[in-house]
Structures are given as C-alpha cells and as structure tokens.
TrEMBL record:
NCBIfam families: Obg_CgtA, Obg_CgtA_exten, PRK12296.1, PRK12297.1, PRK12299.1, small_GTP. This is GTPase Obg. One of its GO terms (biological process) is ribosome biogenesis. It is found in: Cytoplasm. The lineage of its organism: Bacteria, Bacillati, Bacillota, Bacilli, Lactobacillales. Residues 127-146 are annotated as: Disordered.
Length: 436
C-alpha cells in the first residue's frame, strides 16, 4: 500500500465555552454581599499549522476527528474559569482546506509555520455577577458557554515544486530526476513505476536552485480517470514551468509528436489554466537509434502547427543515461523560472467569504415549521444559540429566555401562524407549551 496520501476528509470541533456560575458572598461580617459568580473560560480553537517536515496527509488516514477542549466553568469569588488550550493540527506545505459542504476554499497553506484557525472556540458564559442591576441586585441568572464551531473539511495536498515533469509512462522522467537531483525514485522497465510524486532539488552550474517534481505518467484519457487518472494531475497546478519529457526514440512504437499532443490535451482537459504555464520540450533518449531522425520529424510537425509569428517552445535534446545536454537544459529552466511569475491558483469565486461570527441583520432570527405530530418547531442560528446558552436549572434564566423570545417576536409569529393555548412548541429536543 502506498504511504502517500494527498486527500482527506476530516471533522473539526472547537471547544465549548465554560458555563458561568451563580454564587453569592456569604461572609459573616459582609451584609448584603451580593452576587459573586464568575464567567466561564473560552473554548479552544482548532488551528492548522504548516510543518515542512510532513510530506503527505497520511496522519489523517485513520485520525479524522479533531476536538478542542472546553473552557473551565466560572468559579465563586468572581473568578473566571481558565480558557482551554488551542488544538494544534500539523499539516504539510501545499495543503488546501475546503469546506466539505460548500466546496469553497477556506485557506491555502503554503509557508512553513503558517497558522490558520479553522474552527473558533466558544466564549465563556457570564456569571451572575454580570447581571446585577439596581433593580435586581442579587440575580440568580448565569449563561452556559457558547458552543464551539463545528465543521467538516476537505484537505487536498498539492506538492510545492517550481518545475513539473510530465509525459507518458516510461519516457524517462524518473531517470531524469535521479541524475539532476539527489532524489532516489523507483526506476523500472515497465509502465507506472512511479505511482506517487517524487521531489528533488536541482542546483545548476551557475549556482541557481529550484524544486522539481516527477509526477506519475499520464496516458490518453487521464483527465477522465484512465490510468492513474486525475489523482496526481492536481500536483502540476503549483508548478511554474512544465518540462514535457518525450521518448524521441519511439521505443514504445508511438509517434513522439502524437505523444506531445495527447499529453497537452489531457492537461487542458483537466484545467485549461495549466496551458498558461511555459513548457520546455525535453527530447529524451537521444542516445538511441532513430532518435535524431525522429527529432527532425518532430520539429517539422511542431513548426507546421504554429503561425509564422508565434514563438515555438524550446526543445532540448538530452540523454538521461549518458547525461548529454543536461547542463544546458537546467540553465534554460532556471532562466525561464526567473521571468515566470507565480500563477494564481484560485479565483475569488473559489474562495469562501471572509468569516463573520456575529449575526447578519438581514438573516431571520428564527424560523417556524410544523412537525408531523402537530408540534410547532422553532429553528434558526440566533435562536438556537440563545437556547443553548440558557441555564434551564434556574427559574430566573428561564424567565429571561421567555422575555427574549417575546422580544424577538416569536409569540406574535406563532399566534399569526395559528398556534393556540396549550400547543406544543419544540426547540431541538426541548418542548414546552404555548401560552396565549
């Protein structure tokens, strides 16, 4: 089984805020001591941190649930509960985080040490010391902690490399990577020897360096799932320059120019924007018989498909086996990288809107529906959050919740929908009678 994993679906849940406390001063010589219950502590965030030591998403293969700790409850003497520690989750460089429900990109993590909060912890509930007023100097009211944010995420790893090697299986990509870098990819005389991306660092004779990714071989129909399919095409997206490796000896019986067209078609079908990346054609296996003649024919066919004023792609004849032409190829690649900017990986439409953790005034505070058993059902983010943070162990808290519902217009809305005295009303699993 391959130890390379580049996609994962996980669930994250931030910590709940600690509950506020109801307490009173009861010292012997302190008359009318008043409320003394402190606030709950804040729940922990779930934070992704980029770790350059990680290379795959294998850590998420069996561990798919991440939950931060809740904050401590408030204490007597007006003391706040301790806030929970944040949960740090380490991810490899090049990890894209999407919301599983909407498919929108939440963040793209590419720099070592980069941090991003993917789920925010809930704030602590207020203790009764917060609710004291001249009219009610000894309130028996406290809040429960706010629930932590919970969401399902899709993680997608796209390797960080300046240059990507693409081509049919067995054209010599892995051999090329092994002679221009210190990488040790698997090399064999059969198709799909490479089944995971291999990375290596190149240093040219002039001292310039860049990262090269050897990607598993593509075949016709890869963009529709043939062969290894689209599984590794995503890794080309971060590259700035593509080295298109072609077996100029035609040892597999295919026409080199047809190979060139077929691979470009698959890149275009997968993502049209891949064709914006400059390509260098690497005519490999030039030490083999017929390679020189095939290269001449290749250049003729290539020129015939370009207009007179169009610039032809650079072609570099090399032999990975004899190391012929490698220095020239690497210098040209470094030169092309210097003048090629970073490509925008995601459009604005792909990105999730900036997170807002309040309540939108345009969004209804609640919704009313009716269940099959004739029970009225109240729902809505604002109402459900208010319900969750209400301490139903205290009569004053229940009365306060009732006043808040009335202030939101729930009573009037139920009455307008036909609710009658004694009808059951449900919020989540909690039921109560409607009083007209």
């Amino acid at each position: 089984m391959s130890m390379f994993l580049d996609t994962a679906k996980i669930q994250v849940k931030a910590g709940k805020g600690g509950d506020g406390m109801v307490a009173f001063r009861r010292e012997k010589y302190v008359p009318n001591g008043g409320p003394w219950g402190g606030d709950g502590g804040r729940g922990g965030d779930v934070i992704f941190v980029v770790d350059e030591g990680l290379r795959t998403l294998m850590d998420f293969r069996y561990n798919r649930h991440f939950k931060a700790q809740s904050g401590e409850k408030g204490m007597t003497k007006g003391m706040h509960g301790r806030g929970a520690e944040d949960l740090i989750v380490r991810v490899p460089q090049g990890t894209t985080v999407r919301d599983a429900e909407t498919g929108k990109v939440i963040t793209d993590l590419i720099e070592h040490g980069q941090r991003f909060i993917v789920a925010h912890g809930g704030r602590g509930g207020r203790g009764n010391i917060r609710f004291a007023t001249p009219k009610n100097p000894a309130p028996e009211i406290s809040e429960n902690g706010e629930p932590g944010q919970e969401r399902e995420l899709l993680l997608e790893l796209k390797v960080l490399a300046d240059v990507g090697l693409v081509g049919f299986p067995s054209v010599g990509k892995s051999t090329l990577l092994s002679v221009i870098t210190s990488a040790k990819p698997k090399i064999g005389a059969y198709h799909f020897t490479t089944i995971v991306p291999n990375l290596g660092m190149v240093r040219t004779q002039s001292g310039e360096s860049f990262a090269v990714a050897d990607l598993p071989g593509l075949i016709e129909g890869a963009s529709q799932g043939v062969g290894l399919g689209t599984q590794f095409l995503r890794h080309i997206e971060r590259t700035r320059v593509i080295l298109h490796v072609i077996d100029m000896s035609a040892s597999e019986g295919r026409d080199p120019y047809e190979d060139y067209l077929a691979i470009n078609k698959e890149l275009e079908s997968y993502n049209l924007r891949l064709m914006e990346r400059p390509q260098i054609i690497v005519a490999n296996k030039m030490d083999m018989p017929d390679s020189a003649e095939n290269l001449k024919e290749f250049k003729k066919k290539l020129a015939a498909n370009y207009d007179e004023f169009e610039e032809l792609p650079q072609i570099f004849p090399i032999s990975s086996l004899t190391k012929q032409g490698l220095a020239t190829l690497l210098d040209a690649t470094a030169e092309l990288l210097d003048k090629t900017p970073e490509f925008l990986l995601y459009e604005e439409s792909d990105m999730e809107d900036e997170a807002y953790y309040g309540f939108d005034e345009e969004t209804p505070a609640f919704e009313i529906s009716r269940d099959d058993d004739a029970t009225w059902v109240l729902s809505g983010d604002k109402l459900e959050k208010l319900f969750t943070m209400t301490n139903f162990d205290r009569d004053e808290s229940i009365m306060k919740f009732s006043r808040q519902l009335r202030g939101m217009g729930v009573d009037e809305a139920l009455r307008a929908r036909g609710a009658k005295d004694g009808d059951l009303v449900r919020i989540g699993k909690f039921e109560f009678e409607f009083v007209d």
